[in-house]
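Handout, section B. The chain below has 392 residues.
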Amino acid sequence: MPAGSPADDRPVIIARDDFHCLIDALRTAGYRVIGPVMRDGAIVHSEPSPDDPPPIGWTDDQQPGNYRLRQRTDGAYFGYVVGPDSWKRLLHPPTVTLWRARRESSGFAVVDGEETPPPMAFVGVRACDLSAIAAQDQIFLQGPYVDPIYRDRRERIFIVAVNCTQAGGTCFCASMGTGPRATSGFDLALTELIDADRHEFLVEVGTAQGASIMAQVPHHPAPADRITAAADRVAAASGQMGRSLDTRGLKESLQRNPEHPRWDDVAVRCLTCGNCTMVCPTCFCTTMEDTTDLSGESAQRVRRWDSCFTLDFSYIHGGSIRTSPRSRYRQWMTHKLASWIDQFGRSGCVGCGRCITWCPVGIDITAEAAAIRSDDSNVLSGVVKEPVHGNA
């Protein structure tokens, strides 16, 4: 069927052989297309190149402290879950030069540090990451203090979401209500459907911009059985989650237990490396670095990602107020699952599981939260229980 505008809000089908037309339409519209690529043994987000091919026919096996790629038996384009790379890196960059100054005869001239990148199309955004982007929108765009760097990037983003039809070993987005199906925040949402005799993508249009792009892509209306098939496969992924987290009363349990022995247990294992904060799609803490050259002729201010696991993060005159691994892990997890709700009205966790996979010692936030919640429930009900220890 020739390309045309979707007649209504009903899903449409793109054949596998026409998928490149979607990418071409995005590029023609002026977007820099960022999608999944294989690099250094992981699936990350970048512009595809001969050196960094897309992960067609590949998947990822994830467990606490373990990530491996392996080939699939089909040619799935999106047959993996989330890797170490979140879209945060492109919207809230790890390093940004805020300004540069150089000495002139009349004083100093100050110029902006970096130019705004061209419009970008994110291809392959999972539902958990859509929720993470929404969380960062709230942090950086709402309230009296708007981050202009984030705003300028965010306003120029086109999002092609992908519904998950399989879950990973550390995923728990179903527990957090953030997936595996994308329900908002996208221009287009795809569900990949692979059967013995066909390979296609069911497409939902979320915005007028999405409809405009789809008008340039060959497609046809989705039959009822393909809509049902897509819904069934996403529902199956919801039942395949490798982890779960019971959030009922969790905020209150964590805030009631700052001295729980579990914090000592996890401190023995935690390396305070900060991996969990670096891969987390919602963590947003930064630090500033001011530098000058030896001649005193130029200076610059750089903003870099920081982590609550570093000693300097909580440095106040005289020293750090969180000197122990116990206090730093407690700060991170209690903020993520409890005080974030007080601060922003929502959890800071989207259930992507990255912090579990990329922790070198395999610390599992769902297990740590469950241990404290279970002991707290027993105390409140009058049951005496020995402290929980171990890596489970």
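Note. The chain has 13 helices and 16 strands. Compare this with the example in section A.
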